[in-house]
Amino acid sequence: MTQRILITGAAGGIGTLLRPRLRRPGRVLRLLDIAPLPPPQPGEAVELVHGSLTDPEVMDAACRDVDAVLHLGGYSRENSWRETLSVNIDGTHTVLEAARAAGVGRVVLASSNHAAGFREVADAGPGGLPADSPPRPDTYYGVSKAAIEALGSLYHSRFGMDVVCVRIGSCFERPADVRALSLWMSPDDGARLFEACLAHPAPGYRVVWGVSANTRQVCSPTEAAELGYLPEDDAERFAAELPPGEQHRYLGGPFTTTPLGIPN
Ligand code: 15L
Q1: Is the pTM of this model over 0.90?
Q2: Is residue 92 part of a domain?
Q3: Tell me, what's the pLDDT at 247?
Q4: Average pLDDT along the chain
Q5: In CA terms, which of 32, 70, 81, 171 is 20 to 30 Å from 192?
Q6: Which residue out of 77, 186, 264 has the highest number of ligand 1 atoms within 8 Å of its CB and is therefore the one to mutate?
């Protein structure tokens, strides 16, 4: 039977990196974004949906016949409170509500290290910061990620939906700076982690870190490992190429000092 996965924010940075990596025989990726999506490649099993995740009608139609939702959509950086509230928080409510109404049993939410951005790196200890460390957001953006984790918990407790919140570290082709040597999640590991979120028989509600097997890791790998995630990459191989820099005091790095409400 065909498996259909809805990916919101599919034209964004992580959506673009995952699109080729989540291709599988017997799987259709339904890609949703308000931004233009590249047309299907020959043989690529995708359905393109142009629309906003904040629109309940769009989301109701997008969730039809879907087995799981990967919710990557929304602002991925700091923005005004009003925009953050409307797109990231209210928009995630719209996504969860549409998924519930359509009977979708599993939603994976893209949370972020910035939900816990004011956690001190020095508190990590040998096991790393637990994935469910209580929120210490560093921005309105971080608040929105903490809020969607809470929404996910509500939808699990009320409706039995499986909801996995992935506190993504820094997911780019390569780590951008010294801070990312601790927080990098390679695109391939990102795909491995999202596959684990989809494959686990009954994840319930859980929060996991989305990072690679970095030598300088500060985030606990345990919770994601329990899900079945086996990372293969380590940011350290890029260390020599990076400009010199220092580890930040706080997990959120520069987000802890960026002016609130101003796009960064
Ligand atoms: C995030 O949550 C952002 O979406 C991304 O653009 C990076 O800034 C990342 O965190 C990070 O902390 O490096």
Answers
A1: yes
A2: yes
A3: 80
A4: 97
A5: 32
A6: 77
